[in-house]
């Protein structure tokens, strides 16, 4: 029986491993994506025991949600946890808009594309620079009262913006950048979130593929925006150690990484993205990895230099 988690103060309960879908229909963000692959990624994940699908209007300007709406036909909606996000305004060059009217309409539009009558989580994808955050959250809370949303999330909000958004204790979940090689949220966000019963969902958990172990020394350039040459070398060296743990479990490095996030009590759900169905199937096998406490600690230690000093 897979371990489950409850999202914030809501009644949304889900397994700790989900699916990220920015490469399902996200043609505006990534080149050479194929919708057939995207549909297969979603179905493969669901067929392998994944419940949470994390999407957004921004992934293909609705196309990701549309594909997911198609892919989930024939599955039991009650067993799927649909999380989507909006804020980028197509009428304002995709600048973030948190205006209550805009968010209310964005929720209705997402419901149509996803072919469902409720969203398990709706996140305000990005803060704008004008709307009072509590007012923005109230718009989502009104959609919750109307039965259209079950849990309220914010994404890419600073701690101060989260506090403003959570004035009335209505925020259930925060999604932000976090991985073993990007650990700032441990100090900046986790203490407040824990104190206020707000769940945390990290994005880029595999550092965009780097933490699968599929890259080598020649790939440093691909990651130079995020990691210095020294940091890149350090990550590859740490991954070689993780490979030993993976061997002991007859697992892949990616599966071990995902098992680490699932064992981490500060993380509600880990949502690795997948471009191809075989990646989704392989990642789902992390559900079978039972990481020992000592292994969890040694992975924590291997990446300790990425903790905020
Ligand atoms: N809230 C936000 O602002 C925000 C921002 C970013 C992402 N997100 C969400 O978070 C999710 C996760 O982030 P992410 O997908 O960008 O990054 P990620 O999970 O760190 O990396 C996913 C990428 O790694 C590669 N990969 C995954 N599994 C693999 C495997 N088993 N073997 C080899 N390669 C594998 C794939 O890319 P290639 O095959 O192309 O190498 C895949 O697209 C997204 O899908 C999205 O739903 C949210």
UniProtKB/TrEMBL annotation:
The keyword Oxidoreductase is annotated on this UniProt entry: yes
Q: Which PANTHER family match?
A: NAD(P)-LINKED OXIDOREDUCTASE SUPERFAMILY PROTEIN, NADH-SPECIFIC METHYLGLYOXAL REDUCTASE-RELATED
Q: Which GO terms describe its cellular component?
A: cytosol
Xref: InterPro entries: AKR, AKR_Detox_Biosynth, Aldo/ket_reductase_CS, NAD(P)_OxRdtase_dom_sf, NADP_OxRdtase_dom
The UniProt entry, under Pfam families, shows: Aldo_ket_red
Q: Can you say what this protein is called?
A: Oxidoreductase
Any one Gene Ontology molecular-function term assigned to this protein's record: oxidoreductase activity
- The species is Lacticaseibacillus rhamnosus (Lactobacillus rhamnosus)
Keyword Transmembrane present in the record's keywords: the answer is: no
Domain spans labelled NADP-dependent oxidoreductase: 16-302
Top-level lineage group = Bacteria
Q: Alphabetically list the UniProt keywords.
A: Oxidoreductase
